[in-house]
Amino acid sequence: MTSLRVADSFLVANGKVRGLDLHRRRFTASCEEVAGIDAGAFFDDQVKRLPGFGRWFPRFELDAEGKLSVQLRPAPPQGGRIRVVVHDGPDPRTQPLVKGPDLAALGDLKAQANKAFGADEVLLTDPDGTVVEAAYSAVLWWEDDTLCVPPAERAYLPSVTAELVRRIAASEEVDVAERARTASDLAATEVWLVNALHGIRPVEAWAHDPIDPLPFTRSKAWQQTLLDSAATL
Fold first, then answer.
1. CA distance 223 to 174
2. Which one, of 217, 171, 167, 223, lies nearest residue 194 by Cα?
3. Tell me: the pLDDT tens digits for 142-158?
4. Strands 176-178 and 146-149
5. Whole-prediction pTM
6. How confident is the model at residue 215 (pLDDT cuts 50, 70, 90)?
7. Both 183 and 210 in a single domain?
8. Distance in angstroms (rounded) separating the CA atoms of residues 195 and 133
9. What is the dihedral angle through the alpha carbons of 109, 110, 116, 117, rounded to the nearest 10 degrees?
């Protein structure tokens, strides 16, 4: 069993961060919920200590003993198009609405998928087959000119990057809809996996099968808008 009760990570690139207020809100709300700890002052103090140069992927943590800490980690390279596989076994998540306790189990799931299929990510579904999220990413997709997300009543982690993308949609007057879809429903559509490290990554293949032809993707322009939203610490 992991001792990690809450975690939150975000990309710091030359002293700039996307959605820092949203990361703060998610981390502090989770610390309060699971341990009754007010982590706001700690978060603010540690943010001031983050480097103003280079690429970093710090992880703010709350452990089982109630200790708050930060791992200052170099950021991995930014990824592009990705291959995904659908997880067909038991759901490994124990606390889907809290980032932290399930990270190790989800990491194992990704490693297994990479070994078996060369996959970069794993889609998780509800018992009825509805796609809810990926191991380390939120799932968004397009149906005509509508940006779609899983239904809010399903159990999945509130994603900071997905919220930022929805804000871009609002500014561009793009409709956003909650829709229940299975992986087979999404096989021929434009699907994005989004997270704080990589931003937007379009899906180019499912398991062993590449999407041919690839659907037209809006991802490049949206990724640039997302990158431009980063603010100085």
1. 15
2. 223
3. 999 999 999 999 999 99
4. parallel
5. 0.94
6. low
7. yes
8. 11
9. 140
